[in-house]
Amino acid sequence: MLKINGLKKQYDSFSLECSLQVPSGRITGLVGQNGAGKSTTFKAVLGLISLDGGTIQIFGKDSRSLTVRDRQDLGVVLSNSGFSGYLAVKDLLPIQKSLYENFDSAFFLSQAKKFGLPLNKQIKEFSTGMKAKLKVLCAISHKARLLLLDEPTTGLDVVARDTVLDTLREYMEEDENRSVLISSHISSDIESLCDDIYMIHKGKIILHEDTDVLLADYGLIKADPKLYRALDKQYILRQKKESYGYSCLTNQRQYYMENYPHAAIEKGSVDEVISMMIQGEKI
Q1: Which of 56, 80, 189, 264 has the fewest Cβ atoms surrounding its Cβ within 10 A?
Q2: Three-class SS string for 29-54?
Q3: DSSP letter at 63?
Q4: What pLDDT band is residue 7 in, cutting at 50, 70 and 90?
Q5: Are the CB atoms for 123 and 83 separated by under 8 Å?
Q6: What Gene3D superfamilies would the database entry show (predicted)?
Protein backbone atom coordinates (compact mmCIF):
# COMPACT_ATOMS: atom_id res chain seq x y z
CA MET A 1 0.00 0.00 0.00
CA LEU A 2 2.83 2.38 0.97
CA LYS A 3 6.53 1.76 0.44
CA ILE A 4 9.26 4.25 1.31
CA ASN A 5 12.74 3.26 0.17
CA GLY A 6 15.84 5.27 1.07
CA LEU A 7 13.96 8.53 1.57
CA LYS A 8 16.38 11.44 2.05
CA LYS A 9 15.66 15.04 2.98
CA GLN A 10 18.35 17.46 4.12
CA TYR A 11 17.76 20.68 6.05
CA ASP A 12 20.40 22.93 7.59
CA SER A 13 20.21 21.29 11.01
CA PHE A 14 18.27 18.09 10.30
CA SER A 15 18.66 15.10 8.00
CA LEU A 16 15.98 12.50 7.27
CA GLU A 17 16.96 9.12 5.87
CA CYS A 18 14.46 6.32 6.28
CA SER A 19 12.69 3.35 4.74
CA LEU A 20 9.41 1.78 5.81
CA GLN A 21 6.44 -0.18 4.47
CA VAL A 22 2.75 -0.25 5.26
CA PRO A 23 1.28 -3.47 3.80
CA SER A 24 -2.35 -3.81 2.85
CA GLY A 25 -4.61 -4.55 5.81
CA ARG A 26 -2.15 -3.28 8.43
CA ILE A 27 -2.02 -0.41 10.90
CA THR A 28 1.59 0.74 11.20
CA GLY A 29 2.82 3.11 13.89
CA LEU A 30 5.64 5.64 13.57
CA VAL A 31 6.92 6.74 16.98
CA GLY A 32 9.68 9.01 18.16
CA GLN A 33 10.44 12.20 20.02
CA ASN A 34 9.34 15.62 18.78
CA GLY A 35 11.67 16.60 15.96
CA ALA A 36 12.61 12.99 15.16
CA GLY A 37 11.28 13.21 11.60
CA LYS A 38 7.70 11.93 11.83
CA SER A 39 5.97 14.96 10.32
CA THR A 40 8.69 15.37 7.69
CA THR A 41 8.05 11.77 6.61
CA PHE A 42 4.32 12.42 6.23
CA LYS A 43 4.95 15.61 4.25
CA ALA A 44 7.33 13.72 1.95
CA VAL A 45 4.74 10.99 1.31
CA LEU A 46 2.15 13.62 0.40
CA GLY A 47 4.51 15.50 -1.91
CA LEU A 48 4.44 18.63 0.26
CA ILE A 49 8.24 18.81 0.31
CA SER A 50 10.84 17.95 -2.31
CA LEU A 51 13.03 14.87 -1.86
CA ASP A 52 16.82 14.74 -1.94
CA GLY A 53 16.81 11.01 -2.64
CA GLY A 54 14.85 7.78 -2.42
CA THR A 55 11.49 6.68 -3.74
CA ILE A 56 7.94 6.60 -2.41
CA GLN A 57 5.31 4.24 -3.82
CA ILE A 58 1.60 4.50 -3.03
CA PHE A 59 -0.86 1.93 -4.38
CA GLY A 60 2.04 0.47 -6.35
CA LYS A 61 2.73 3.74 -8.18
CA ASP A 62 5.44 6.35 -7.82
CA SER A 63 3.90 8.96 -5.53
CA ARG A 64 4.69 11.70 -8.05
CA SER A 65 2.53 10.01 -10.69
CA LEU A 66 -0.64 9.65 -8.63
CA THR A 67 -3.75 10.89 -10.41
CA VAL A 68 -6.45 13.05 -8.86
CA ARG A 69 -8.57 9.91 -8.58
CA ASP A 70 -5.74 8.06 -6.84
CA ARG A 71 -5.43 10.84 -4.28
CA GLN A 72 -9.11 10.49 -3.42
CA ASP A 73 -8.14 7.15 -1.87
CA LEU A 74 -5.97 8.94 0.70
CA GLY A 75 -7.30 10.14 4.04
CA VAL A 76 -5.00 12.63 5.72
CA VAL A 77 -4.54 14.23 9.13
CA LEU A 78 -1.51 16.51 9.57
CA SER A 79 -0.53 17.68 13.03
CA ASN A 80 -0.19 21.37 12.14
CA SER A 81 -3.04 21.81 9.70
CA GLY A 82 -6.78 22.32 9.98
CA PHE A 83 -9.86 24.02 8.58
CA SER A 84 -10.70 27.72 8.50
CA GLY A 85 -12.03 28.74 11.90
CA TYR A 86 -14.84 30.69 10.28
CA LEU A 87 -16.42 27.53 8.86
CA ALA A 88 -18.98 25.44 10.70
CA VAL A 89 -19.07 21.64 10.51
CA LYS A 90 -22.13 21.81 8.24
CA ASP A 91 -20.12 23.98 5.81
CA LEU A 92 -17.69 21.12 5.28
CA LEU A 93 -20.33 18.86 3.74
CA PRO A 94 -20.47 20.51 0.27
CA ILE A 95 -16.68 20.97 0.32
CA GLN A 96 -16.03 17.31 1.03
CA LYS A 97 -18.62 16.23 -1.53
CA SER A 98 -16.91 18.30 -4.22
CA LEU A 99 -13.48 16.86 -3.36
CA TYR A 100 -14.33 13.17 -2.93
CA GLU A 101 -16.59 11.05 -5.12
CA ASN A 102 -17.12 8.55 -2.29
CA PHE A 103 -17.82 11.04 0.49
CA ASP A 104 -20.52 9.57 2.74
CA SER A 105 -22.68 12.39 4.11
CA ALA A 106 -24.80 10.13 6.29
CA PHE A 107 -21.71 8.59 7.88
CA PHE A 108 -20.18 12.02 8.41
CA LEU A 109 -23.27 13.35 10.16
CA SER A 110 -23.72 10.27 12.36
CA GLN A 111 -20.07 10.33 13.42
CA ALA A 112 -20.19 14.08 14.07
CA LYS A 113 -23.02 13.39 16.51
CA LYS A 114 -21.08 10.50 18.05
CA PHE A 115 -18.01 12.74 18.46
CA GLY A 116 -20.08 15.55 19.99
CA LEU A 117 -19.35 18.02 17.19
CA PRO A 118 -22.09 20.70 16.83
CA LEU A 119 -22.96 21.29 13.18
CA ASN A 120 -23.67 25.02 13.43
CA LYS A 121 -20.80 26.13 15.65
CA GLN A 122 -17.77 27.82 14.05
CA ILE A 123 -14.62 25.73 14.20
CA LYS A 124 -12.68 28.61 15.81
CA GLU A 125 -14.86 28.09 18.90
CA PHE A 126 -13.96 24.38 19.12
CA SER A 127 -11.62 23.03 21.75
CA THR A 128 -8.32 21.46 20.66
CA GLY A 129 -9.85 18.03 21.16
CA MET A 130 -12.92 18.84 19.06
CA LYS A 131 -10.71 20.08 16.22
CA ALA A 132 -8.69 16.85 16.39
CA LYS A 133 -11.84 14.73 16.19
CA LEU A 134 -13.10 16.75 13.22
CA LYS A 135 -9.87 16.19 11.28
CA VAL A 136 -10.06 12.43 11.86
CA LEU A 137 -13.73 12.40 10.85
CA CYS A 138 -12.99 14.12 7.54
CA ALA A 139 -10.14 11.69 6.85
CA ILE A 140 -12.34 8.60 7.21
CA SER A 141 -15.57 9.85 5.61
CA HIS A 142 -14.71 9.15 1.96
CA LYS A 143 -13.77 5.47 2.21
CA ALA A 144 -10.04 6.05 1.71
CA ARG A 145 -7.85 3.00 1.14
CA LEU A 146 -4.86 4.50 2.96
CA LEU A 147 -4.99 6.76 6.00
CA LEU A 148 -1.99 8.95 6.83
CA LEU A 149 -2.53 10.21 10.37
CA ASP A 150 0.12 12.43 11.95
CA GLU A 151 -0.57 12.78 15.70
CA PRO A 152 -4.36 12.47 15.26
CA THR A 153 -5.15 12.08 18.98
CA THR A 154 -3.23 15.14 20.19
CA GLY A 155 -5.40 17.20 22.52
CA LEU A 156 -7.93 14.44 23.19
CA ASP A 157 -8.80 13.26 26.68
CA VAL A 158 -8.79 9.54 27.47
CA VAL A 159 -12.48 8.99 26.64
CA ALA A 160 -12.26 10.91 23.36
CA ARG A 161 -9.08 9.05 22.38
CA ASP A 162 -10.78 5.72 22.97
CA THR A 163 -13.71 6.83 20.80
CA VAL A 164 -11.39 7.81 17.94
CA LEU A 165 -9.32 4.63 18.22
CA ASP A 166 -12.47 2.48 18.23
CA THR A 167 -13.63 4.33 15.12
CA LEU A 168 -10.33 3.57 13.38
CA ARG A 169 -10.66 -0.12 14.30
CA GLU A 170 -14.19 -0.19 12.86
CA TYR A 171 -12.91 1.57 9.76
CA MET A 172 -10.34 -1.19 9.24
CA GLU A 173 -12.83 -3.97 9.93
CA GLU A 174 -15.12 -2.69 7.15
CA ASP A 175 -12.49 -3.41 4.49
CA GLU A 176 -9.55 -5.74 5.08
CA ASN A 177 -7.59 -4.08 2.25
CA ARG A 178 -7.38 -0.69 3.94
CA SER A 179 -4.16 0.47 5.63
CA VAL A 180 -3.10 3.11 8.13
CA LEU A 181 0.18 4.87 8.91
CA ILE A 182 -0.20 6.68 12.23
CA SER A 183 2.24 8.64 14.35
CA SER A 184 1.68 9.33 18.03
CA HIS A 185 3.63 10.21 21.13
CA ILE A 186 0.99 8.44 23.24
CA SER A 187 2.30 4.90 23.63
CA SER A 188 -1.00 3.40 24.77
CA ASP A 189 -2.56 4.40 21.42
CA ILE A 190 0.20 2.63 19.51
CA GLU A 191 0.21 -0.48 21.70
CA SER A 192 -3.52 -1.02 21.43
CA LEU A 193 -4.00 -0.10 17.77
CA CYS A 194 -0.95 -0.91 15.65
CA ASP A 195 0.13 -4.20 14.10
CA ASP A 196 3.75 -3.06 13.85
CA ILE A 197 5.87 -0.13 14.95
CA TYR A 198 8.75 1.83 13.47
CA MET A 199 10.86 3.92 15.86
CA ILE A 200 12.53 6.98 14.38
CA HIS A 201 15.29 9.02 16.02
CA LYS A 202 17.18 11.95 14.52
CA GLY A 203 15.76 11.16 11.10
CA LYS A 204 16.66 7.47 11.05
CA ILE A 205 14.66 4.31 11.73
CA ILE A 206 16.28 2.65 14.75
CA LEU A 207 13.84 -0.22 15.26
CA HIS A 208 11.01 -2.01 13.44
CA GLU A 209 9.02 -4.69 15.21
CA ASP A 210 5.58 -6.30 15.30
CA THR A 211 3.70 -4.86 18.26
CA ASP A 212 2.83 -8.31 19.65
CA VAL A 213 6.48 -9.36 19.51
CA LEU A 214 7.66 -6.15 21.16
CA LEU A 215 5.21 -6.47 24.03
CA ALA A 216 5.80 -10.21 24.48
CA ASP A 217 9.53 -10.63 23.90
CA TYR A 218 11.19 -7.35 24.83
CA GLY A 219 12.18 -6.70 28.42
CA LEU A 220 14.35 -4.69 30.77
CA ILE A 221 16.90 -6.48 32.95
CA LYS A 222 17.78 -4.65 36.15
CA ALA A 223 21.30 -5.86 36.90
CA ASP A 224 23.62 -5.04 39.78
CA PRO A 225 27.35 -5.02 38.91
CA LYS A 226 27.82 -8.69 39.84
CA LEU A 227 24.90 -9.88 37.69
CA TYR A 228 25.93 -7.57 34.85
CA ARG A 229 29.41 -9.12 34.70
CA ALA A 230 27.92 -12.62 34.59
CA LEU A 231 25.19 -11.76 32.10
CA ASP A 232 25.20 -13.37 28.65
CA LYS A 233 25.05 -10.25 26.50
CA GLN A 234 24.39 -11.77 23.07
CA TYR A 235 20.71 -10.70 23.20
CA ILE A 236 21.24 -7.28 24.78
CA LEU A 237 20.23 -4.47 22.40
CA ARG A 238 21.08 -1.50 24.61
CA GLN A 239 22.43 -0.88 28.11
CA LYS A 240 22.28 2.15 30.39
CA LYS A 241 24.26 2.84 33.56
CA GLU A 242 22.02 3.29 36.59
CA SER A 243 22.65 4.01 40.28
CA TYR A 244 22.15 0.33 41.15
CA GLY A 245 24.15 -1.01 38.20
CA TYR A 246 22.75 -1.38 34.68
CA SER A 247 19.43 -1.43 32.87
CA CYS A 248 19.63 -3.72 29.83
CA LEU A 249 17.15 -3.92 26.95
CA THR A 250 16.66 -7.36 25.40
CA ASN A 251 14.41 -8.79 22.70
CA GLN A 252 14.74 -12.27 24.27
CA ARG A 253 13.13 -11.77 27.67
CA GLN A 254 12.19 -15.44 28.05
CA TYR A 255 15.80 -16.53 27.56
CA TYR A 256 16.98 -14.41 30.46
CA MET A 257 14.03 -15.40 32.66
CA GLU A 258 14.95 -19.08 32.17
CA ASN A 259 18.71 -18.67 32.58
CA TYR A 260 18.73 -15.98 35.28
CA PRO A 261 15.68 -16.87 37.40
CA HIS A 262 16.61 -14.53 40.25
CA ALA A 263 17.15 -11.48 38.06
CA ALA A 264 14.64 -8.62 38.03
CA ILE A 265 13.28 -8.67 34.48
CA GLU A 266 10.37 -6.44 33.46
CA LYS A 267 8.23 -6.39 30.34
CA GLY A 268 9.20 -3.61 27.98
CA SER A 269 6.52 -1.05 27.12
CA VAL A 270 6.76 1.01 23.95
CA ASP A 271 7.87 4.03 25.98
CA GLU A 272 10.59 2.06 27.76
CA VAL A 273 11.88 0.53 24.53
CA ILE A 274 11.99 3.97 22.89
CA SER A 275 13.84 5.41 25.87
CA MET A 276 16.41 2.61 25.92
CA MET A 277 16.93 2.63 22.14
CA ILE A 278 17.60 6.39 22.28
CA GLN A 279 19.45 6.79 25.58
CA GLY A 280 21.08 3.39 25.93
CA GLU A 281 24.41 2.35 24.50
CA LYS A 282 25.26 -0.60 22.30
CA ILE A 283 27.55 -3.16 23.90
Answers
A1: 80
A2: EEECCCCCCHHHHHHHHCCCCCCCEE
A3: G
A4: very high
A5: yes
A6: P-loop containing nucleotide triphosphate hydrolases
